[in-house]
Specification:
CATH topology of the largest domain: Muramoyl-pentapeptide Carboxypeptidase, domain 2
Structural class: alpha+beta
Helix content: 40-55%
Number of helices: 10
Largest sheet: 4 strands, antiparallel
Order of helices and strands: EEEEHHHEEHHEEHEEHEHEHH
Number of strands: 12
Shape: rod-shaped
Number of domains: 4
CATH architecture of the largest domain: 2-Layer Sandwich
Distance between the termini: 121 Å
CATH class of the largest domain: Alpha Beta
């Protein structure tokens, strides 16, 4: 060959450099050479950006598919063991480390490989990552998936990172696939995202609930000794209990004598409202106070009459203004127009 092309052969592996074109080939296939430090930077960046769980799944899928690709070059070979021996020579010559086959059984479709000085071990050792190797084990699972025409997966029995002399990888038939792992990871991420959204919704709902409680039963000081509460919307046990506790607390704190219950925003006067209002009136009376019903519209008045409830012992007025005037009068005050 000319000076622009350099060719060398190690065992059956042929390396060629075309200096003029800047192309390197590995057994006739265009290839690239990388320093360990460059691959280390590549993997550490994936881990940093994606996190260990995502990066492991990505590297597994990459290794497995690379293995399937490599095995496709030998799809017409019948002697699997001879192909395996050829692989071992190729990977050793390419700097992938030393590989030993400690178990090979076609009847079981089970293989155990021992790897020493693999590039993945060198990189993880440099990264000081105490985690199981994934790319090369999954790569061999992909190789044997292609060679044996059956889906294979892996298990790391021993690891140099844990102090063993070599990485021991067991390859065996399995239903596990990189695609399944990717989908499972996606489901997990989706579930985490859904859980986060549910928590946000729950927190927001609680905030809105607290806000509604605060706004729906405002306790308004009218004058010294007089408080007013506006009843708005529909009430259930929780809302009425909140109303009762809040009202009694403010009534006692302000040392009030009269509580005006504004019914203006109450559209229907049912048995539930009657029952709970009677309880509130009684509770206020136990504190030495008196309740006054105000905002009684004609339609609400008819409902009260038809309900058969006797409210004769509770002062009632059509407007809040009338109720305030009554309470002021009962306290002995007099409103005088300024001259």
């Amino acid at each position: 060959m000319g000076d622009s092309i350099i060719r060398t052969q190690v065992d059956s592996t042929v390396f060629t450099w075309d200096k003029e074109k800047g192309i390197f080939t590995f057994d006739g296939a265009p290839s690239m050479l990388f320093w360990d430090s460059a691959i280390e930077l590549f993997i550490s960046t994936i881990i940093e950006v994606s996190g260990e769980d995502v990066s492991n799944t990505v590297l597994e899928a990459t290794g497995f598919r690379m293995g399937e690709l490599v095995s496709s070059y030998y799809k017409d070979k019948i002697d699997t063991r001879s192909v395996l021996d050829q692989y071992i020579d190729i990977y050793r010559n390419a700097g992938w480390g030393k590989i030993n086959v400690s178990h090979f059984c076609l009847e079981e479709n089970r293989v155990i490989l021992q790897l020493e000085n693999s590039w993945e071990h060198r990189i993880y050792q440099s990264l000081k990552k105490e985690q199981a190797l994934v790319l090369l084990p999954s790569h061999w699972a992909g190789v044997f998936t292609g060679l044996l025409k059956e889906n294979m997966w892996y298990k790391v029995n021993k690891s140099q990172l844990s102090g063993s002399e070599y990485d021991e990888i067991e390859i065996f038939p399995s239903t596990i696939t990189p695609t399944d792992n990717i989908h499972e990871l996606a489901r997990q991420k989706e579930q985490v995202y859904i859980s986060e959204l549910e928590q946000k919704v729950e927190d927001r709902t609680q905030e809105l609930t607290d806000l509604v409680k605060h706004l729906s039963t405002p306790i308004m000081p009218v004058l010294k000794g007089i408080l007013a509460v506006s009843l708005v919307g529909k009430f259930n046990d929780d809302r009425f209990e909140e109303l009762l506790q809040k009202t009694l607390f403010e009534f006692s704190k302000k040392r009030a004598s009269y509580l005006l219950l504004d019914m203006t925003a109450i559209g229907e006067f049912d048995e539930y409202i009657i029952y709970r209002l009677q309880g509130l009136v009684k509770a206020v009376s136990l504190l030495g106070g008196e309740c006054i019903l105000v905002g009684i519209s004609p339609s609400l008045g008819v409902q009260i009459i038809n309900s058969g409830v006797d409210l004769s012992n509770i002062p009632t007025f059509a407007t809040l203004e009338q109720g305030i005037e009554h309470a002021i009068d009962m306290l002995g005050y007099e409103i005088v127009k300024k001259q």
